[in-house]
Amino acid sequence: MDFYQVLEKRRTIRDFSDKEVTDKVLEKVLSAAFKAPTNDHLRQFEFIVVRGQENIARLISPVAENTKNIQQTGLEAAADVMDKDGYAMFVDALPKQQRMLMQSNCLVLPFFRQKDCPLCHPTDQSSLNYFASAWAAVENILLAATAEGLACAFRIPIGNEPEYVRHLVNAPEEYEFTCFLAIGYAAENAHICKQKEIWIEDRIHRNIW
C-alpha cells in the first residue's frame, strides 16, 4: 500500500474482531511516532500498552458514566447544529466509547513529556507546539496501523479521565496523557462512517494579500 492509499484507507473503526495484535507488529506501529516532528526535537514519548479486558476495564472505568452524560445532554442538541454526516458519526460513536476500548484488547496510552508549558494549559500560541507534537505522533501511529492492516479508534479523555489514568499508572508529574488509543483488527461487519468529501480546489486561496 503506497502512502496515498494509506491516507484514503485510514478510518476510525470502533468495531474490532478478537484477532490479537502481536507485539512485533505493535512495536513497528508505535515506532512510527518517533518519526513525527516534535518541539525542540525531543521525541519525549512513552507508551503504556494494556492487554486483557479486566485490566482495560479498570483503566477506563470513568468512561461509561462520562459518555452517558454527554449522550444525555449533547446528542439531541447536536442534531440541530451538526451536518448529517457528522451527526451520523456522533450517533454511532458515542454508544461504543467504552466497548471499543475493551474490544480491541490492545489499549495504548500515549504519554508526552512536556518541557515548559502544561500541554492542556498553553500560555500562548507558541506553547501549543507541545500539543502539536503529541498529535503529530498519534497521527503517525494511525497511518502506520492502517499500513499494517490494523484498525484504530481513539478517545480524547474528558472530565476526570486524564487524572484517573495518570494516578492509576503512576505517571510522573511532567508527563501528559494524550488519549486512549485502541489498536486491533476490524470486525468483519465493522461500521465505517462516511467521510466528508472535501474539494481541495475550494480550500486553496492563492495570492489573497
Automatic annotation (TrEMBL):
<keyword id="KW-0288">FMN</keyword>
<dbReference type="Pfam" id="PF00881">
    <property type="entry name" value="Nitroreductase"/>
</dbReference>
<dbReference type="InterPro" id="IPR050627">
    <property type="entry name" value="Nitroreductase/BluB"/>
</dbReference>
<dbReference type="InterPro" id="IPR000415">
    <property type="entry name" value="Nitroreductase-like"/>
</dbReference>
<feature type="domain" description="Nitroreductase">
    <location>
        <begin position="8"/>
        <end position="185"/>
    </location>
</feature>
<keyword id="KW-0560">Oxidoreductase</keyword>
<dbReference type="GO" id="GO:0016491">
    <property type="term" value="F:oxidoreductase activity"/>
</dbReference>
<protein>
    <submittedName>
        <fullName>Nitroreductase</fullName>
    </submittedName>
</protein>
<keyword id="KW-0285">Flavoprotein</keyword>
<dbReference type="InterPro" id="IPR029479">
    <property type="entry name" value="Nitroreductase"/>
</dbReference>
